[in-house]
Fold these 2 entries.
Entry 1:
Amino acid sequence: MRLSRYYAPTLKEDPADAEVVSHKLMLRAGMIRKLTSGIYTFLPLGLRSLNKAARIVREEMDRAGALEILMPGVQPADLWQETGRWEVYGKELLRFKDRHDRDYCLGPTHEEVVTDLIRHEVRSYRQLPLNLYQVQFKFRDEIRPRFGLMRGREFLMKDAYSFDRDEEGANASYKAMYEAYCRIFTRLGLQFRAVEADTGSIGGNYSHEFMVLADTGEDTIAACMACEYGANLEKAEAVSPECAKPAVCAAYEQVPTPGAHTVEEVAKFLGVEPSQVVKTLLFDVDGEPVAALVRGDRELNDVKLKNALNATNVALATSEQVQAWTKAPVGFAGPVGLGVKTVLADRELAWGTDWVVGANAADAHLKHVDLDRDATLTRYADLRSVTEGDPCPKCGKPLSLTKGIEVGHVFKLGYKYSEAMKATFLDEQGKDRIIFMGCYGIGVSRVVAACIEQNHDGGGIAFPPALAPFEAAVLCLDTKGEPLAKAEELYAWLNAQGIEAVLDDRDERPGVKFKDADLIGYPMQIVIGGKGLGRGVVEVKDRRTGEKAELPVEGFQEAFTTWRGKVAEGWAGR
RNA sequence: CGGGAUGUAGCUCAGCAUGGCUAGAGCGCUGCGUUCGGGACGCAGAGGCCGGAGGUUCGAAUCCUCUCAUCCCGACCA
């Protein structure tokens, strides 16, 4: 591709409404343009990267035995009503009516559609297992789209769905996808980690997320430094060392704590450690009041609470609700004498006593509380988020917390959709059985953004060869005479080798070409100018390292091939 | 949905508290000339309903009200 005839509108300055690096750089490198909040147009360079990601995904999905299909973006409401998600999914589901006043939505995911397809098609166990996938734009009306492609409303996703006769078969399908994902993200040149995850609104009972490690990630993952254990913070099990509970605890007494609302204030006021205080958090869980207890220095994880109660909606109680339930202002809730039916306590609290808790009365707390003796607990459960250094649930060594970008998610769905939608088959005995499903997503457009988060420097993007819009750029510094002829020659040769390259033959000053090449991030730059040619050399630059080398004009092809191998090795060996 | 911020040239921004002649700069764009190995320089140009609507005023980019859009934080820690 000749840049003189290409459309790569680069920007010198950072766009005002971009915050994270990938967003800024994709805008600046002329890869994308915003249409409206969370919705972007892919320009030629951006599309090329996107397609490269999609191609690798397709290759590995095909290799794993999945079959590509393409489902509609618009979906009828009745399918969603069948599975109950029409009510459950909430505002993320963009709904609208057609001219006949029928309800539709823009597909945020395709479990319903694919299950509908399968229930009409699959009759016999002989047709299973089956794995269907598609690469398609999804629409989710995010509460707050942000960070460019990272959390857009419209985004390209690869979603696959497996259908098996039983859980054993599903396990094999799951494993095949898990392995395909590892290959995909490795080939994409991303540094990632597969972690155990919560299943969210997709449902199911077992899942892994594939996280690209990056500080700008929206998710926190807990990873063991010693073993393979890794989990999303929503899932990471908090292990409490089992120690003997101190037997003695004086009878509780109420003490005044005027104006002390927060744990810190209470602890300071009473002269105890925050870890000696019990936080009582009140929630509206599917319309019912629930109290959740964690140690004062801990973070309650609402996803864990939701899962512990097998609930759908968990919302922190409003201050009106708190006052109604505790008969006290906000800040003084406690488990003793609390008129709330469901009271869950974090497991850690079972191993301690002599707590400070809210008194359910204004400006007062209780000292010397033993939860088992003084409060009525529904049960203990794993409610708190793990913190840096907590013991790994697998091996007991310390966990470390890092940020990650979720780029892939594999779920073992089970019968959730197939049962609701009656997707069944006949087994060898002629018995009707429900199909066991799995689903597997990859955020293709997010992968591109995540890649940039991981691979950039002050000059711009440093694309790994697998995702770069072009692998090489021939920068022709002199657009006439011998340099141009040489540049044309090398460019033609690169193309003949199947190396995707651009020829910067624009009538621009050298500085502009250097800056643009760095910004767009072609892994290899080949610089051709009169000075080098005069000395019989062509300069090349490895974008990732910034290292330059001079290759002889005579024997360039061989020298280049060797150098290209080194560049590739550098990427692989990171 | 709550909080914060911002809407002025294609882009990045000044001007606005204290209303006043023809609304500015840099980059980009067009033309000419000089340059030509890390975002050149000079000269000459084009380009604005100051987000939109209403209001106050002799007069509004500037003040008031409403509205729309975009971005950021939050929407669990009592």
Entry 2:
Amino acid sequence: MKQGLLTDRQKEVLRYRKTGLTQQQVADIIQTSKANVCTIEKAAYENIERAKETLEFLYTLDSEHLCTIKSGTDLIDAATLIFQDAEKLGIKVKYNTLELINRIHDSNPSRFRARYVREDVEVYINREGDLFFG
Amino acid sequence: MKQGLLTDRQKEVLRYRKTGLTQQQVADIIQTSKANVCTIEKAAYENIERAKETLEFLYTLDSEHLCTIKSGTDLIDAATLIFQDAEKLGIKVKYNTLELINRIHDSNPSRFRARYVREDVEVYINREGDLFFG
DNA sequence: TACACCTTAAACACTTCTCTTTAACATTGC
DNA sequence: GCAATGTTAAAGAGAAGTGTTTAAGGTGTA
């Protein structure tokens, strides 16, 4: 079984690139074309994305769906909604309003503009009162 | 491109199993053998491991290993330990104790129960004092 | 012992990923 | 313009992962 998602080739490229080398320089070192370095690097980042998505799924696995924050909602109203729905389930949310709003926003900043939600956000909660946003 | 590392089949099995069903019951529902459910479930957990290893690699790419927080440690003691070890390396941690505890906890809430660590957590630090937990 | 539950190994068809080359296109800075 | 950097698409060979069956081996418990 492969260790991690990244191949040796992909790690090699990422390490060299991290030191500041250009794709061409890396290509010269590992004896291939710069186009290939680009492809390998891209595949590596796609794998990293997939790894993140996988762990997100894990979080939602021991959580249950709490509510959906509809597009256009004000973040402050969203927080109120979350507290209400959590209370219905008898779960105490681990965060206060300010922390909660920051957490929602940080989960994927591009989904918000100013205080407003731009696209539906699914909210999950576990028994400890942790929240996840999908 | 597949979304995440897990196949639909693997997620399906994990979800059913999470509800408490036996492998045989899941097998009946998804119309296959219990041996196959076992195989799929195992593959799913291997994929989850690989996802974790992948992100660990990412952290280590521009960070170095700082310490390991042992299972059973109190989060407050963990924070103290981190500050001490960072000082040994001559690196100033970017966070105060409260922020630090929140960051550790948020890195993967399921690894904690109340103030205690449920499984070992690897801690990485970079020259800017950013912390990562694997 | 018998039963329910879980795990493992081998084998197979099938699909997907990986690395590679080649050739073209986009962006930036001189 | 042109040189350097990075990106993309198409195509192919080889490698790796997936779901499946069958058959055997564990573990725990009534």
